[in-house]
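Hello again, I could really use a second opinion on something today. My current little project is about how a certain protein chain folds up. You're getting the sequence in one-letter code plus the fold written as tokens. Here's the protein in full, and shout if anything looks odd to you:
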Amino acid sequence: MTNAYLICGVDEAGRGPLAGAVFAAAVILDPARPIEGLADSKKLTEKKRDALAIEIKAKSLSWAIASSSVEEIDEINILQASLLAMKRAVEALSVVPNEVLVDGLHCPKLLMPMRAIVQGDSKEQAISAASILAKTARDADLYELDKIYPAYGFAKHKGYPTPLHLQMLEQHGVLSIHRKSYAPVNKIFNLKQGK
């Protein structure tokens, strides 16, 4: 196995939401242990994602999940925070890959061969696996936030700017877990501050 060419897939979850950290995962699949049903996490049901996440963790040569905080998102912007989470995930792997395949247009700052692949999560199995781990980790985080702040409905909207979430923001105000650099949050935050 030592002389195999190891490909690492990387993807993030949570660029669009108004609340919570952005998550990224890095996965090196084991060619000897294929996983059936890998696809872009957005095209899978939550139940299917959860089942696949367990299988990915069990069968991969190496996997890691990392995140960038709300403070980092507000400080360096969501794109840079996503790339930082990706960098952290790759650096946390127990195996060093020969090449890193990243979903999207941009690559994190890493000293190894990398390629950005648009819609990579539906083209490359390793990226699909990473998208599933990133999404399930982010969802789990939002379920925890829902327990802490039950009035906001995080379990329902996962922090995305749905009418319910915006209504709860207006009603209850902006939390520390909200991304103040995002226009809808910023607008409500300033209104509440009387700016």
